[in-house]
From TrEMBL:
Residues 40-433 form the Glycoside hydrolase family domain. Keywords: Carbohydrate metabolism, Cellulose degradation, Glycosidase, Hydrolase, Polysaccharide degradation. This is cellulase. InterPro entries: 6-hairpin_glycosidase_sf (IPR008928), 6hp_glycosidase-like_sf (IPR012341), Glyco_hydro_9 (IPR001701). It comes from Hevea brasiliensis (Para rubber tree). Pfam families: Glyco_hydro_9. It catalyses: Endohydrolysis of (1->4)-beta-D-glucosidic linkages in cellulose, lichenin and cereal beta-D-glucans.
Length: 443
């Protein structure tokens, strides 16, 4: 086995009746299985290092384990569980098992400090064969990044995956969660300290399959965002504040996938502002808003393309990956915006909910009815009622008032016609409510 500075070669001994591990697509039907085998990799001449790299996922339809997209897959599965796990019901445990199969492998791949084993299998030779995993006889070469041949992109993505997964297992397996976050911290330190794109040193092995076309800055921002979320350590918030612009936080790009994480980092960090009220991250909401505008067809700043049938189109190579990733970001950002909820817990439709406007700017609602007060109320006599703090005696159920000001303040004063007066506001609401009540999402 010939030694190269940033690669190692290995032979894989597998039981004849087992496979190394199915691809991610297969994993949801095959589920995770334990298999006992390991890789013997060679470090510097005369030094043997035993590394167990069993597990993980083959990439797509190949028999190669590419660590870069695999880590991104683990990050996105974890983010999906974090945001929407409560809706997964019986599939939640399967999703967590799929995540754990990936993170168990990533823990093995990062077992040595300042080293990450980023690929198993020679992609060029794998592409010259069309074999089942059980019949695979192509070289199981192992490629790594280290201090001498860095890979900030794959390292920071791996840190993001481990940090995100630590949140998934925080309650169900706190010991495993702590292991994941400790490793994420160490791996991110390596990514940031020894900077460089992994495809610089491993170009002939990882390109054109998973070249780091966008550089490594996006992954450093992405990794720091996940570590900030997982640890709440102010060190990472400070890192984002100091380095965000340098790492491309404000760049105008709207592609989110295994290579470019800028948009994902912006959406993730916008939550810290919208939900946790971290004012120092206010700009990330603006960056997230710009992304939303960039994909709206026909919008002034839109740069997105759509097929004649209305499908988002990024590129001919596996376009649906960008459709699914963009859909996830749209839903997640919508959730964050919703989470920045009505701080007064006020319904602005009269009679709806436990708390609604009681002193609306409306004569018939505020003055006593003829049944209660049959005598005539003279022109100016009613102003004493208009200026009072008493709730309106007649509840105008269904009326929508002007609503809160730009700071979410609503004084509920009868004299404040700008905020407390109902008007034609109800008319356009009728159609929207009819749709929401009965459409089940179908137009």
């Amino acid at each position: 086995m010939a030694f190269r500075p940033s690669t190692t070669t290995a032979t894989l001994a597998l039981p004849a009746t087992t496979t190394e591990m199915p691809s991610l697509n297969q994993s949801f039907s095959l589920r995770a299985r334990d298999q006992a085998s390991s890789l013997l990799t060679r470090g510097s001449p005369g030094e043997g290092t035993r590394v167990n790299l069993v597990g993980g996922y083959y990439d797509a339809g190949d028999n190669v384990k590419f660590g870069f997209p695999m880590a991104f897959t683990a990050t996105m599965l974890s983010w999906s569980v974090i945001e929407f796990g409560g809706l997964m019901k019986g599939e939640l445990q399967n999703a967590k098992a799929a995540i754990r199969w990936a993170t168990d492998y990533l823990l093995k791949a990062t077992v040595h400090p300042d080293t990450i084993y980023v690929q198993v299998g020679d992609a060029n030779k794998d592409h010259s064969c069309w074999e089942r995993p059980e019949d695979m006889d192509t070289p199981r070469s192992v490629f790594k990044v280290d201090r001498n041949s860095p890979g900030s992109d794959v390292a920071a993505e791996t840190a993001a995956a481990l940090a995100a997964a630590s949140l998934v297992f925080r309650r169900s397996d706190p010991t495993y969660s702590k292991l994941l976050v400790r490793r994420a911290i160490r791996v991110f330190q390596f990514a940031d300290k020894y900077r460089g794109a992994y495809s610089n040193g491993l170009k002939k092995n990882v390109c054109p399959f998973y070249c780091s076309y966008s550089g490594y800055e996006d992954e450093l921002l992405w990794g720091a965002a996940w570590l900030h979320k997982a640890t709440k350590n102010p060190t990472y918030l400070n890192y984002i504040q100091v380095n965000g612009q340098t790492l491309g936080a404000a760049e105008f790009d709207n592609t989110f996938g295994w290579d470019n994480k800028h948009v994902g980092a912006r959406i993730l960090l916008s939550k810290a502002f919208l939900v946790q009220k971290l004012q120092s991250l206010h700009d990330y909401k603006g960056h997230a808003d710009n992304f939303i505008c960039s994909i709206i067809p026909g919008a002034p700043f839109s740069s997105a393309q759509y097929t004649p049938g209305g499908l988002l189109f990024k590129m001919s190579d596996s376009n649906m990956q960008y459709v699914t990733s963009t859909s996830f970001l749209l839903l997640t950002y919508a959730k964050y915006l919703t989470s920045a909820h009505n701080p007064l817990r006020m319904s602005y439709m009269v009679g709806y909910g436990p708390r609604y406007p009681r002193r609306i700017h409306h004569r018939g609602s505020s003055l006593p009815s003829i049944a209660v007060h049959p005598a005539k109320i003279q022109c100016s006599s009613g102003f004493s009622v208009m200026k009072s703090q008493s709730p309106n005696p007649n509840i105008l159920v269904g009326a929508v008032v002007g609503g809160p000001d730009r700071h979410d303040r609503f004084p509920d004063q009868r004299s404040d016609y700008e905020q407390s007066e109902p008007s034609y506001i109800n008319a356009p609401l009728v159609g929207a409510l009819a749709y929401l009540a009965h459409s089940f999402g179908q137009l």
